[in-house]
Design goal:
The protein is built from five helices and seven strands; from the N terminus they run αβααββαββββα. By secondary structure, it is α+β, with helices and mostly antiparallel strands. This is SMI1/KNR4 family protein.
């Protein structure tokens, strides 16, 4: 299993981490997204969705478009680049985190207090990102 370390962290600290499993139908829905990273699907399948470290980070139950979370802060005409981002979570402080699908599924943050700017994360893969969230 790719995320065995994370699963053990969750099990050993259940008061800090709140995760739920996805159904196979929910996983299949995500697989319909063209070129979706395999390590992201493995996370959904093995770990599920939920909150890390008492809401330090929230992993969604699937990918969502930016306007579903941050739509109240912008219109597509002023930020057309945001249509290329699919969010998989947020930092519970208003910043969405997801994939920039037009740049090889790079991991980016959308900073709500910086005119919704797209900022690249240091991690090269979703797996690296997930591990970094549980290490903090």
């Amino acid at each position: 299993m790719r995320y065995e370390i994370i699963i053990n962290i969750i099990k050993n600290n259940s008061s800090k981490h709140n995760f739920e499993a996805l159904t196979e139908d929910e996983i299949k829905r995500e697989l319909e997204v063209k070129d979706i990273p395999e390590d992201y699907i493995d996370f959904l399948r093995e770990v599920g969705y939920g909150t890390v470290n008492n809401n330090y980070f929230n992993f969604y139950s699937g990918l969502i478009e930016v306007d579903e979370i941050l739509g109240h802060l912008y219109d597509e005409d002023s930020h057309p680049e945001l249509k290329d981002v699919l969010l998989f979570g947020d930092n519970s402080a208003g910043d969405g985190v997801g994939f920039l699908v037009t740049d090889n599924w790079s991991i980016v943050e959308i900073w709500h207090d910086d005119n919704l700017s797209i900022n690249y994360r240091d991690e090269d893969t979703f797996e690296e990102f997930a591990h970094s969230i549980f290490e903090d």
